[in-house]
Each structure stands twice: as structure tokens, then as C-alpha cells.
Design a protein that fits this description.
- With 171 residues, the protein is of the alpha/beta class.
- It has one domain: Leucine Aminopeptidase, subunit E, domain 1, CATH 3.40.220.
- It has five helices and six strands; from the N terminus they run E-E-H-H-E-E-H-E-H-E-H.
- It has a six-stranded mixed β-sheet with strand order 1-6-5-2-4-3, with helices on both faces.
- A hairpin with a 7-residue loop joins strand 3 and strand 4.
- Helix 3 runs parallel beside helix 4 and helix 4 crosses helix 5.
- The longest helix is centred in the middle third of the chain and has 18 residues.
- The protein is globular, with a radius of gyration of 14 Å.
Length: 171
């Protein structure tokens, strides 16, 4: 079951043209490694200054800021779960990340959003399981929000892209 509004790419998320890009952030929202650090570096010091006013973000929730020096007008910051074997509500928390991001997309009238593979880097979430949840939540959001025209999954490498390609073929 494919939907042409769900797209995959393998590139740097900081260069993506979309209304919003999603940052796989840590609870402080004050920058870090991986995608988080890259987004902060490109967006510039104004992003960090705005994030300081937000008071952090609990796992599974999301916050929105301006994109500053990024091509995207907005950055949606979400904190994915650290993988601990799947017994600490990780699937539920990861699904909540996507739902809360899509809620902000709808609330702000955005038509396109680009996601990294949330929690699959240093947080250790298995790529195939994470991709399944991401695709499922994207399909749900597209069905519920007729204004949403494009959901782009930005894959860090070919292993991640393969996991998303597989998830797209599943019902």
C-alpha cells in the first residue's frame, strides 16, 4: 500500500526544502550530536536562544521553533525513546513522537514535513521497527489532515533507507 505523498530520500536533512523539518532532539532541546547538532549548527545561534525559552521537552512530546538559517521555515523538535529492549513503552513513545509532530504540523497549517529516523541513531531503536511505526503514523496523519501534501523521510544511510522502503510495502 503506497502513498505518493510519503517519500524517501537519503541526504542531509538540514538542506531539505519543506515547511518544517523534524529534529530528533534530547530532552534539553539545547543541541547535541547527530541530527540535533547538525540542525543547531546550520540554523544558527537564534535556534538555541529560542530553545532555551521552551524549558525542555519530555520523551514522546514535541515543540516547534522557527527554522532561522535553515531552508525550512520551522523546526519541530521531538524526543524519541532510548531503546531498552522494547519493554519500557518504547513503541508507544515513538508513535507519540510522530503523532505530536503531526499535531503541530496541522496546528500551524503546514503542508510538508521532513523527518529523520527518530531514535535509530545513538538511542539504538531497531531501524525496521522504527520505520514501521513512522510509516504507520504518516499514513494516519495523511488520512486525517487533507492539508498535508508531503511527508518526507530523510534517511541517514542506505540501511535506514532499506528499512523504510520495506515498511512502505507493508499494509
Amino acid at each position: 500500500m503506497t502513498d505518493s505523498r510519503i517519500q524517501l530520500t537519503e541526504e542531509d536533512i538540514t538542506g531539505i526544502q519543506a515547511d518544517a523539518i523534524v529534529n530528533a532532539a534530547n530532552n534539553s532541546l539545547l543541541g547535541g550530536g547527530g541530527v540535533d547538532g547538525a540542525i543547531h549548527r546550520v540554523a544558527g545561534p537564534e535556534l538555541l536562544a529560542q530553545c532555551r525559552t521552551l524549558g525542555g521537552c519530555p520523551t514522546g512530546e514535541a515543540r516547534i521553533t522557527k527554522g532561522y538559517n535553515l531552508p525550512a521555515a520551522w523546526v519541530i523538535h521531538t524526543v524519541g525513546p532510548v531503546w531498552r529492549g522494547g519493554t519500557q513503552r518504547e513503541p508507544e513513545l515513538l508513535a507519540r513522537c510522530y503523532r505530536n509532530c503531526f499535531s503541530l504540523v496541522r496546528e500551524h497549517g503546514l503542508r510538508s514535513v521532513a523527518f529523520p529516523a527518530i531514535s535509530t541513531g545513538v538511542y539504538g531503536y531497531p531501524k525496521e521497527e522504527a520505520a514501521r511505526i513512522a510509516i504507520q503514523e504518516a499514513r494516519r496523519a495523511l488520512a486525517e489532515n487533507e492539508n498535508l501534501a508531503r511527508v518526507l523521510f530523510v534517511c541517514f544511510n542506505s540501511d535506514t533507507r532499506l528499512a523504510y522502503e520495506k515498511a512502505l510495502t507493508e499494509p
